[in-house]
Every structure is written in C-alpha cells, then in structure tokens.
C-alpha cells in the first residue's frame, strides 16, 4: 500500500495541472495546486507540503527560479522538489539539478513510474533528514547540520529549545491521538510565529516527541519567545475537557504508577546565544541548553530563560 502524502503541484497550464492532479490523486495522495511562483510562496506561508511538483516552463518566475529561491530559505530548503517537464533538453535538466531539484518527470512517463519516482524522492529525504512524519519538520540531522553551518559561517545566532510541560500526563489521560494533535498544534504555533515575527532565514526543527528547536538571531529572542509563551497557554486549552479547564488541572498516573494531579500544559523555552560568548560546537550548545532547560522547567507556567553567561 502506498503511503499518502500531501503534494503541491505548480503549473500555469490548466490542462496540464488537471492531468498531473489526476495522476497524483490516482495513487491516493492529497493534492494542492498553485499556478505561479508567487502563488507557490503564498501557499507555503500557510502550510508545508511533503513534496512539490514544479513546472519547468512558467511565465514570470520559472520553475528553476522558484527552486533556487526555495533552496536559499531555511524554512523551505528541505522540501523535496520534482520538476515537471515536457522537454528533453539536457541543459534544462542539468540546470534544474544545479538549483536543488531532486528529480524530474515528463507527461510521456507511465503513471506508475511517476508514482515510484515520487516515493523514491520522499524516502530519500525522510532517511537523510530524519523528517518527523507528524509535523513534517526537519529532524535531528537537519537541525545539527544547520546549526553547524551557522557556527562555521561565524554568524550570530540564538538557539531556542522548546519543551512542553506536563505533556506526558496529558498523553496518558487523553490518549495518543489527542497527544499528536497537541504536537501538531505546537508545531503550527511555532511555525506561524516565526513567519510573522522572525527572520526569513530562521529555522524550525522537531527533535521528537514534544521537543522542538528553532534558530534565529539574538535580536529576535524576546519578541519570538514572548509571543510563544503568551500564545501557547490560551491555545492549548482547546484540547482539555470543560471539567478539567474549570478545575485547572488533570488527574493522571505519575511515573510510579500512582494517581496524581498535574497542571495544564505549559511551554518552557531555553535560549542559548553566541551574542556575548563563543560557542564552537553543537555538543557545547546542547550541554549549555540542557542546563538552561532545567532552570526554565523549574518555573511554573509558560516561560523562557536566556543564558546570560559571557566568556
């Protein structure tokens, strides 16, 4: 059975768009469409697909130009791209690969081959980047790679580790399905705040479970973290029953298997920055973050703590 993926098809020709949509939906995938490069970027501001099928020849912004811009933006650079082409021009194909395209398909190919190419590209990406299957955010490999890139480039950066408080108790009380909804809500909240208030180059990753990491610049820390700790507590209430909201806590088993009361979920942010101190490795950053995270989680409610130490 083929896994179901969300695929964005970009083509300015209505007939071709209809054809590609029929082929892709025929293999059980969810399809969204865009008709230009500009429309593609507007779509990506709202949601991230698993893969983009991108027409090579489009007026205005060509498929190659769209691919080039996507690969230059950390928020989008890990989205797999397959170029749609009716051209057998080797130069076009080589230029596409140079701009970060992962594969190409043509209308002359059999639908089964197109489906297999889509599956192959997605499998490579998920294996290489350890992409989280729930949130579709880059995993540990991509996070460490992006962090090392910023270290090597000598950039000023801030690493923000995000962890949900009392998530395990909620998961035990409400079940894994509701727990997954909370994880998706958190990913969407972080993604939206970064897009609205952050830099274009900011990077968001999903370590796993209820742990997220984002990279930004030191000057954005208070704005972003402040928005997150203000927005999360109100938004997460939607996942609780009226009774639990009224009493302000839930009852669940603790790690010893005993019944215990737990507060409603909150979010703790641990911030590590090289603004006033040198940080030379991912391992060093992780060690410092672990210390700051303990301090953040020792406080009640949603909050953020910034490492203030200097060299």
Fold topology:
Layout: E1 6-10, H1 14-26, E2 30-34, H2 37-44, E3 51-55, H3 63-72, E4 81-84, H4 90-98, E5 103-105, H5 111-129, H6 140-152, E6 158-165, H7 167-174, H8 176-197, E7 203-208, E8 211-216, H9 221-235, H10 242-247, E9 249-253, E10 259-263, E11 266-273, H11 282-298, E12 303-306
Parallel strand pairs: 1-2, 1-3, 3-4, 4-5, 11-12
Antiparallel strand pairs: 6-8, 6-11, 7-8, 9-10
* Total count of helical runs of at least 4 residues: 11
Mass-distribution shape: globular
Low-pLDDT runs of 5+ residues are: none
Mean pLDDT: 91
Number of domains: 2
| Strand arrangement in the largest pleated sheet | 2-1-3-4-5
- The sequence of SSEs as H and E is EHEHEHEHEHHEHHEEHHEEEHE
Structural class: alpha/beta
Radius of gyration from CA coordinates: 22 Å
* CATH fold-type name of the largest domain: Alpha-Beta Plaits
- Major sheet attributes: 5 strands, parallel
Find the count of extended strands (DSSP E, 2+ residues): 12
**CATH class category of the largest domain:** Alpha Beta
CATH superfamily of the largest domain: Reverse transcriptase/Diguanylate cyclase domain
User: Whole-Å distance between the termini?
Assistant: 56 Å
The CATH architecture of the largest domain can be named as 2-Layer Sandwich
Task: Please explain how this structure is put together.
This protein is an alpha/beta fold and 311 residues long. It folds into 2 domains: 6-125, Rossmann fold (3-Layer(aba) Sandwich), CATH 3.40.50; 140-306, Reverse transcriptase/Diguanylate cyclase domain (Alpha-Beta Plaits). It has helices at residues 14-26, 37-44, 63-72, 90-98, 111-129, 140-152, 167-174, 176-197, 221-235, 242-247, 282-298, and strands spanning 6-10, 30-34, 51-55, 81-84, 103-105, 158-165, 203-208, 211-216, 249-253, 259-263, 266-273, 303-306. The strands form 3 sheets. Strands 2-1-3-4-5 form a 5-stranded parallel sheet, with helices on both faces. Strands 7-8-6-11-12 form a 5-stranded mixed sheet, sandwiched between helices. Helix 7 (167-174) crosses helix 8 (176-197) and helix 8 runs antiparallel to helix 9 (221-235). The longest helix has 22 residues, at 176-197. The protein starts with 5 loop residues before the first strand and ends in a 5-residue tail after the last strand. The model has no long low-confidence stretch (mean pLDDT 91).
């Amino acid at each position: 059975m083929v896994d179901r993926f969300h695929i964005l098809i970009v083509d300015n020709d209505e007939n071709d768009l209809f054809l590609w949509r029929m082929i892709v939906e025929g293999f059980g995938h969810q399809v969204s469409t865009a008709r230009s490069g500009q429309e593609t970027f507007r779509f990506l501001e709202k949601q991230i697909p698993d893969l983009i099928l991108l027409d090579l020849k489009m007026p205005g912004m060509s498929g190659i130009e769209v691919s080039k811009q996507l690969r230059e933006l950390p928020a989008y650079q890990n989205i797999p791209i397959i170029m749609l082409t009716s051209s057998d021009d080797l130069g076009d194909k080589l230029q596409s690969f140079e701009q970060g395209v992962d594969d190409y398909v043509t209308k002359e190919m059999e639908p089964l081959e197109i489906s297999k190419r889509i599956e192959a590209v997605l499998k490579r990406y998920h294996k290489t980047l350890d992409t989280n299957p729930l949130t579709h955010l880059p995993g540990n490999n991509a996070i460490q790679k992006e962090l090392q890139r910023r270290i090597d480039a000598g950039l000023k950066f801030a690493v923000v580790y995000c962890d949900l408080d009392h998530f395990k108790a909620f998961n035990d009380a409400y079940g894994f399905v509701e727990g997954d909804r909370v994880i998706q809500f958190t990913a969407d909240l972080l993604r939206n705040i970064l897009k609205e208030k952050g830099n274009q180059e900011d990077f968001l990753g999903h370590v796993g479970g209820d742990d997220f990491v984002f990279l930004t610049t030191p000057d954005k820390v208070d704005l972003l973290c402040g928005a997150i700790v203000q927005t999360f507590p109100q938004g997460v209430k939607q996942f609780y029953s009226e009774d639990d909201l009224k009493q302000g806590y839930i009852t669940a088993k603790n790690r010893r298997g005993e019944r215990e009361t737990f507060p409603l979920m909150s979010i703790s942010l641990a911030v590590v920055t090289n603004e006033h101190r040198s940080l030379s490795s991912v391992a060093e950053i992780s060690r410092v973050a672990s210390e700051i995270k303990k301090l953040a989680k020792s406080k009640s409610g949603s909050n953020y703590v910034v490492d203030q130490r200097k060299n």
